[in-house]
Design goal:
mainly alpha
């Protein structure tokens, strides 16, 4: 009888119930809520589902993120900036830069939306973070998860990488909820109804030259951005050259999805209760929201300015797409515009600022790396 009792006690001691604390249970509940948003609500499930499942795993079995644990080795690829760069390769292979080439003024809207990053940097300094930590946190304002992870790794802010990455990807997923109220607050119904002229056709030569020129210009000015911008443009060159269809398909599908699985689960696994439930985490989440809201507002306000200067030919809503959540932010611009006028089609116009925002966020990261001598 004693043998049976001891065996049962040993088994009970090996269960997760014996070692979990209230924080773990709270994070498990948060993970389940994120799973609900991903599966039931469809909020960027490709990102949110693996992140939330990684969160679930690490709070049930923390050793999975310790040396020797499966997700620890996935996470090292994040720290070494390998995963973010490969994500950019896939994004480039999926992205059409035609709307940006056809309307170069979109670069200005993409640049305006980066204002949220630099505003958040100042706020983070005021809230007690050091310069490097503030820079890593502020990139959340670009709604660009890979760049946030890339910069946090380069600036050696690994202690904040988990909260930064989760906040960045969460805000990317919640773009359809966060942006519309800001967009509607800052625009009139008349402005939202503005129909823009059809974009001019873009030649194949322009599309081939674009990634080459951008790589040369940006990498010459900010060499530290070469891993991100270079992979983004290489993926796009695969697509636009038309001579490496197998590489395009691999980069935009199989490789992209493999990297998303590894990146998502490892990012989620950084959210153990011990590492995540801190006051600094709350400040990071708040700063990320502030940065994202300011970036959205800055894009819309600059769009209003361009609307005035163009004599009412530019719909200010496309400015909100200047954050780099591709293509979700462009879809939100289309949705809000269609609510005002169902015959209004802004998607392709919004894609210009949207892809400009991807480049702009990488450039902002390069500026911070240059400032801190990385």
């Amino acid at each position: 009888m004693d043998y049976i009792v001891n065996t049962l006690e040993n088994l009970a001691g090996q269960t997760a119930f014996a070692s979990l604390n209230w924080g773990n249970y709270l994070m498990i509940a948060v993970a389940c809520f994120f799973l609900y948003l991903a599966i039931k609500k469809g909020y960027e499930p490709l990102l949110l589902l693996p992140i939330s499942f990684g969160m679930l795993l690490v709070n049930i079995y923390p050793p999975i993120m310790e040396e020797g644990g499966l997700l620890h080795y996935f996470y090292l690829l994040d720290e070494w900036s390998i995963m973010p760069s490969l994500i950019f390769l896939g994004v480039g292979a999926q992205t059409d830069f035609g709307p940006l080439i056809a309307n170069p003024k979109s670069f200005l809207l993409g640049a305006a939306a980066q204002f949220g990053i630099f505003a958040a940097y100042l706020f983070a300094i005021l809230m007690g973070f050091n310069g490097k930590a503030a820079a890593a946190i502020s990139i959340i304002g670009g709604a660009d998860g890979p760049t946030s992870i890339f910069l946090a790794g380069k600036l050696q802010q690994t202690e904040y990488m988990g909260p930064i990455a989760v906040a960045a990807y969460s805000y990317m997923s919640l773009v359809p909820i966060i942006q519309p109220p800001i967009m509607k607050l800052l625009t009139t119904e008349k402005e939202r109804k503005i129909k823009m002229e059809q974009l001019r056709p873009v030649s194949k030569l322009e599309k081939i030259l674009f990634p080459v020129i951008i790589t040369i210009v940006v990498s010459m000015l900010l060499p530290s951005t070469a891993p991100l911008v270079g992979m983004l443009m290489l993926g796009n060159l695969f697509k636009e050259s038309g001579v490496v269809k197998q590489l395009t398909e691999t980069a935009s599908n199989a490789l992209m999805y493999i990297v998303v699985i590894l990146l998502g689960t490892s990012v989620g696994a950084t959210t153990s209760a011990e590492a995540f439930l801190k006051f600094d985490t709350l400040k990071i989440v708040a700063l990320g929201l502030i940065a994202f809201a300011i970036g959205t507002a800055a894009g819309v306000l600059f769009g209003k300015l361009m609307c005035k200067l163009s004599g009412g030919k530019i719909n200010p809503l496309i400015g909100s797409a200047g954050v780099s959540a591709v293509p979700m932010a462009a879809r939100v611009s289309q949705k809000v515009g269609a609510e005002a006028d169902p015959t209004n089609f802004l998607l392709m116009h919004a894609m210009g600022p949207n892809v400009a925002g991807v480049i702009g966020t990488a450039v902002a990261a390069g500026v911070f790396m240059a400032i801190f001598g990385v």
